[in-house]
Design goal:
Blueprint: H1 2-15, H2 19-43, H3 45-80, E1 85-89, H4 95-106, E2 111-117, H5 119-130, E3 147-152, H6 157-167, E4 173-177, H7 181-222, H8 224-232, H9 237-280, H10 292-317
Antiparallel strand pairs: 1-3, 1-4, 2-3
Helix pairs in contact: 2-9, 3-7, 3-9, 7-9, 7-10, 9-10
Length: 324
């Protein structure tokens, strides 16, 4: 009798689905529902294209503004690297003192580069540029000081000002000068542009979220009778919700890819005009496009919008549908 019982027990355990089998069945169910939701989009092409277009445009504008800010930061970084601290040395410094000061500054981690303009070269340049010519030769001595041009290692106004104050204390330095007011204005403008971009992006993405939620709500209302029948035969809310969630994901995928294509076409169209301008100004500026990482972030945001919008719609509407 124990043998019979053991045989029945082992037979029951063999017939029960294992963990791997349950996992495979779940994956197949999800794949089937994902494909069926894609088929639903194909069967309603008009509202599908409209929703994808709205989502794509909503994603295009903030992504384009992001590319604009990125290129503006590239231009501003070139300006940041161009400012220098002018150190006017005392008249009685010797060449040995200057060499010592240059060596000291080159060893400072806050200093990126040091360039010397000696008084003789400065006077020769002044003669050539000022137009006074031979009149300067009547001077008893050269009134111009030796100047050290110091480039900070950090391209930030606050760091440059702190370095200037520190270099002002050097015993060979008569005066340290730095014009950072325009750098501070540039940094303030860039910060304002970034805040505006983030605000516009948040508003547009919220609008896209509402559009997706309303689209899924209309789809749920269209299938209200089918949902009631499914609930009558015992289908759970999570099983009924899944196709609508996959619909939102598909909308996000297509909307994000549409936004990427529009941005690339815009940048391709602008690249020729920008190349003509940079050639006229003899600039090495090149237009930055979306990187692979930024494309991935764009797609993740689009898919996230589709998923969240559809989730909010199904959670509030499918539960409200009950069979009569």
């Amino acid at each position: 009798m124990s043998i019979l019982f053991n045989g029945r027990a082992s037979g029951a355990s063999d017939s029960a689905p294992g963990i791997l089998q349950k996992l495979m069945m779940g994956v197949v169910t999800h794949l089937r529902q994902a494909v069926s939701s894609l088929g639903e989009l194909w069967r309603s092409p008009v509202w599908t294209l409209v929703t994808i277009a709205v989502l794509g445009v909503s994603m295009t504008l903030p992504a384009t503004l992001h590319v604009l800010v990125k290129n503006l930061q590239q231009v501003s970084s070139n300006y940041d690297q161009s400012f220098e601290i002018s150190l006017f040395l005392k008249n009685d410094v010797t060449e040995t003192d200057i060499a010592t000061l240059v060596t000291l500054l080159q060893g400072d981690r806050d200093v990126g580069k040091v360039r010397l303009i000696d008084k003789t070269a400065a006077m020769a340049e002044f003669k050539q540029e000022s137009g006074f010519g031979e009149a300067i030769t009547f001077l008893d001595q050269n009134p111009l000081p030796d100047v050290l041009l110091v480039t900070p290692s950090q391209s930030k106004p606050a760091a440059a000002e702190a370095l200037m104050n520190k270099l002002q204390q050097e015993r060979f330095v008569e005066l340290a000068k730095l014009d950072i007011s325009w750098l501070e204005r540039l940094a303030a403008i860039m910060s304002l542009v970034q805040q505006v971009v983030y605000t516009i992006a948040a508003l547009l993405l919220c609008g896209a979220l509402l559009v997706i939620g309303n689209t899924i709500r209309l789809l749920i209302m269209d299938k209200k009778a089918e949902i009631e029948v499914m609930k009558l035969v015992g289908a759970t809310d999570s099983f009924i919700q899944r196709p609508f969630l996959y619909t939102g994901i598909w909308l996000g995928v297509f909307g994000g890819f549409l936004a990427f294509l529009v941005i690339e076409l815009m940048l391709f169209w602008l690249r020729g005009a920008i190349a003509n301008v940079t050639q006229l100004y003899q600039s090495g500026f090149s237009l930055n496009v979306l990187t692979l990482q930024e494309f991935g972030i764009l797609m993740l945001i689009a898919v996230g919008l589709g998923l969240v919008g559809s989730y909010l719609a199904v959670r509030s509407h499918i539960k409200a549908i009950e069979p009569c």
